[in-house]
Amino acid sequence: SYILRRTVCGLTTKGYNRTFLKLLKALGSETEDIPGELRSGLAALSGDSSVWPTDAAFSDAWLSRKAYDLKTQRVAHILRSLSNAHMTKLSEKIQIESPLTVEHLLPQSWTANWPLPNGEQGMSELAAIGADEDDERATASLQRYSLLHTFGNLTILTQELNSSVSNAKWTTKKPALLQASLLPINQQLHKYDTWDEEAIIARGKSLLEKALELWPRP
Fold first, then answer.
1. Selection from 114, 120, 158 nearest residue 138 by Cα
2. CA dihedral over 202, 207, 210, 211, signed as positive or negative
3. Residue 158: beta bridge partners?
4. Contact 150/78 with Cβ under 8 angstroms?
5. How many Å apart are CA 107 and CA 114, to the nearest integer?
6. Full-model pTM
7. C-alpha to C-alpha distance for 3 and 11, rounded to whole angstroms
8. pLDDT tens digit string along 25-74?
9. Are the C-beta atoms of residues 158 and 98 closer than 8 Å to each other?
10. How far does Cα 137 stand from its chain's mean position?
11. Taken in order 209, 213, 214, 217, is the CA torsion positive or negative?
12. Helix, strand, coil distribution of the chain in percent, nearest 5
């Protein structure tokens, strides 16, 4: 939880060796509750090099930071853990033998098949950045780009499924995902008739609730 939260928040890993050695020395040989003492010690740390991010800081990073900028394996691990967390004793056990890749639900190349909420075609990120401040199409495009790489817009698929639906419209992509993938994280897409900024934010918050349970802070 400590390392994952710091990773999501984009905090440095440079001080980990020094931090953990210091904590281990502080525990002492007579400590009965080593896990509890270690959690307390980590929670007391401060500063960007060692702080354990609070729920507020973690939530803000989860909903707004570009998660796709993290190492792909880490993002895939996080999404897979979230998917597994939705399994209950009533669920069938799913054994995954093929590697899973991270996929954008709203694709990175979205301007051709994914119009803006008002129906207009979106602008490239570079063009939107250079547009006038009062250009509504540019503002809407930048809003979409700001959500594109967040956890709310990411999922895990087999490479074959990923390639087959990559830039397709939602009316094509959604049924393909639901038919081919049994993962809970994908089956929950049933409830989204459209996939837009509102849906990305809503799904991001839903995944965040589970993330806070999986990786709590004392």
1. 120
2. negative
3. 100
4. no
5. 9
6. 0.90
7. 9
8. 766 656 677 777 778 888 888 888 889 999 999 999 999 999 988 888 89
9. yes
10. 27
11. positive
12. 55, 5, 40
